[in-house]
Each structure stands twice: as C-alpha cells, then as structure tokens.
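It is worth pausing here to work through a concrete case rather than discussing structure prediction in the abstract. The textbook approach is simple: state the sequence, then state the predicted structure, then interpret. We follow exactly that order.
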Amino acid sequence: MEPSNAVRQVEEILTLKDQYYKDAIEIKTPQLFNRLSRVGPKSVGRGGATLLEVKKCLSFYISCGTLYPDELDDLLLEFTFPLDYPSESTCNVRALSAKAVQNSSDSNENEGYESCTRQIEQYLKSFCGYECVELTLDWVAQNKNTCLLDDNSSKRNDHSVEGGSSDNAGDDRLGKVKCYVLRYNHLLEGPEHKKEKAMIDAAKKARLQGGLLWGTPGVVVVVPPTTEDDAKEYASECRTIGKRADGVEEIWLPQVGIDEAGLGGLAQQKRGGKLQELNTVGLRSACGGDEDLLRSVLGVR
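Step two, the predicted structure:
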C-alpha cells in the first residue's frame, strides 16, 4: 500500500469525525486504522516511499439513521477503502439494513438495499482519484426521500407474493379521495429562499388545502375540498413566482392517511391555513403506508 494513500484515507475519516458525522461513524477495523494513523507525512518522501505491508482494507460504517432519523432510520452505509484508494480507485459502498447488521455477526450475510448500492456505485464511477465519502453523503442527502423506494417496494411485493395477496386490490378506491400532486425539481426549506416562501404565502391566500414536501423532488399535495381548477390556478401562480411544476396530476389517497398526516381540514385551520410541511414519513402516512402509492406521489417510476 502506498503511504500517501494511507495518509489520505486516515485524514478523510478524521475530517468527517471533526464535522457533523462524528456520532454516525463506527470504525470496523480499529487496529488497522490506528496503525495507518501512525503513517505520517514524512513516510511519503520524495523519490518514492517503501510500500506498506497491509493485508486488510480499512472499513467503517456511517449510520444514516443518526443523520436522517425520519427518512433513513434503517440505512447503514458500509464503506471499504481499497488499498489503492483514493489515488487509483473509488471507495466501495454497500447500503445495508441497520436492523439486519445489529442482529447478525457477519456483515456479508446482512440484508442490503441492493438498488441503493447500485445507484451509489454508478454515481461514484466518475470520481476516481477523489475522496468519495463526502460525495456519497452529499448524494444521500439529495436523494434521502427516494433512494430506498425501489428496495422497499421490491420487499413489499415479495411479501405480497409469499402471502398470496392479489394486486387487484390496488384498483379499489374505497376509502380514498381524489387529490392532486404538483412536483417541482426542488423546494428549499428556510426563510432565505424567497420563491418557496412566496409559494407558501400564495397557497395560504388561495386557501389551498394540503401539504408540502421539501427537497428534491419537491412536492405539493392538494386535498379536498380544493378542486382541480384550484390546483391548476395555484400552479399558474407559482409559475409567475418562478417555480414551475411539471403539471397537475390526479391521484387517489386514503382519507385515513390524509387525516393522520394532518393535511387540510381542521388540522390546517389550527395552523392558520398554512400547508402542512411534510417529511417522507409524513407523506408515507398520507399514502396509508403504501410504498407504490408513495412512489407515484414522488413521481418515481
């Protein structure tokens, strides 16, 4: 192993520990980490340095449940640094189930989020020669609302097959009401984002009933008694603000889920008429826990 790679690997982890991620990191190879920590800059001399005899790869976990307890409570990222990382390769990342890791002594047998792992792998392909951990965490932050949807939907379908359930029930609108979804490329939270603030003010002025999901994508869910015409008029108003929705899509949501999520009605009156600000957990609740319906609301096909 090149001493320069050892120094860069250790520095990358130490930098993360000095930041927001300190409580989320768990070193899987502590003895190796301590050994590589003793490889100082003097070991990286001019004219080439002696290679380090290293048989194992540095490995560690980062708990996304610590970083994003509402959206990614069960996501655990396992990072492994190849011996030639970062000079000639990218790091290896596996998206694992935190519950499965906790219940197993062998991470190789742990249940993983395969689709999420593939997405991260594809994203990192173009970053050979760069420190990749923060790049991965930035990707997770940008995609925290959608990165596990493929895996969760697949698992739910697997359970349905095992239980012998039928998909015909998906066509049943009993107990559901007609709602409308407006999707935006992104909606940024915070008073410093003037366009988004103007959107919220416009919704309150129009007495729009529903909720808003911050992030990428950003979503506005409109529920009864707001009508389709009201939703289209609001979308038009947002265009004048500078926020263009990709259309107004009809979608049927369970009334029980809408009530639990606090969308519209008395809950909105208590908020002074403001839209309910949602996270993924709240939006999932509005969908009655139906992952396929949640994907439809988010526009993830």
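Step three, interpretation. Residues 164-170 have pLDDT under 50 and may be disordered. The two ends are 43 Å apart (CA to CA).
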